[in-house]
């Protein structure tokens, strides 16, 4: 079993492009650029998507264009059409419970209040897919008087952006391992990065 579908979560449109909630899009954009894959708009899947090879493995890259809380529409449709199992899917998303600069990999578990994950779980009928969590911090732990919904829809502060970029760079390094099915090796490498 290896990763065949890498999904970056975010919200479409220029007003959301630089917001924390789009960390998943940032990673997939970087990956697409690194491997020379151009993402095309596909109406059937309500997404930007492309197919590439990572370590000789065919892998789909997907950015749902449905807005975050309806991400499952794209993920579910593509997974069904191409017969991709939940265990072969990696969802890349922003994570409030991790500090900026931290990225963690895990399989399964609850959505932790993340509406994109809730919708994907509903569409796939299981929580048993992989998640790559890009830490954006929480307004409380960052001493900000900001509601969570407002916080995720704003740009990272100047000092946070290089940390997020670093977490994405660390995450990109483990994707070839995930595409070979080397999950424990990838997890260890990411979780000990720094």
From TrEMBL:
The active site is at residue 21. InterPro entries: Pept_tRNA_hydro, Pept_tRNA_hydro_CS, Pept_tRNA_hydro_sf. It comes from the Bacteria. It is an enzyme of class 3 (hydrolase). Its EC number is 3.1.1.29. Its main location: cytoplasm. The record marks 11 as: Discriminates between blocked and unblocked aminoacyl-tRNA. PROSITE patterns: PEPT_TRNA_HYDROL_1 (PS01195), PEPT_TRNA_HYDROL_2 (PS01196). GO terms for cellular component: cytoplasm. It catalyses: an N-acyl-L-alpha-aminoacyl-tRNA + H2O = an N-acyl-L-amino acid + a tRNA + H(+). Catalyzes the release of premature peptidyl moieties from peptidyl-tRNA molecules trapped in stalled 50S ribosomal subunits, and thus maintains levels of free tRNAs and 50S ribosomes. Hydrolyzes ribosome-free peptidyl-tRNAs (with 1 or more amino acids incorporated), which drop off the ribosome during protein synthesis, or as a result of ribosome stalling. PANTHER family: PEPTIDYL-TRNA HYDROLASE. Belongs to the PTH family. This is Peptidyl-tRNA hydrolase. The lineage of its organism: Bacteria, Pseudomonadati, Pseudomonadota, Betaproteobacteria, Burkholderiales.
């Amino acid at each position: 079993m290896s990763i065949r579908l890498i999904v970056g979560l975010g919200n479409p449109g220029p007003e959301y492009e630089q917001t924390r909630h789009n960390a998943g899009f940032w990673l997939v954009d970087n990956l697409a650029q690194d491997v020379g894959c151009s993402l095309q708009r596909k109406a059937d899947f309500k997404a930007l998507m492309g197919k590439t090879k990572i370590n000789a493995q065919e892998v789909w890259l997907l950015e749902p264009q449905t807005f975050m809380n309806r991400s499952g529409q794209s993920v579910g449709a593509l997974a069904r059409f191409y017969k991709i199992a939940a265990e072969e899917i990696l969802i890349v998303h922003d994570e409030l419970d991790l500090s900026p600069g931290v990225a963690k990999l895990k399989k399964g578990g609850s959505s932790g209040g993340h509406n994109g994950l809730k919708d994907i779980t509903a569409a796939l009928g299981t929580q048993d897919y992989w998640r790559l969590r890009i830490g954006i911090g929480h307004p409380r732990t960052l001493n900000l008087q900001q509601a969570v919904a407002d916080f995720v829809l704003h740009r990272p502060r100047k000092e946070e952006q290089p940390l997020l970029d670093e977490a994405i760079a660390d995450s990109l390094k483990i994707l070839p391992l995930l595409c070979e099915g080397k999950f424990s090796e990838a997890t260890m490498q990411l979780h000990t990065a720094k």
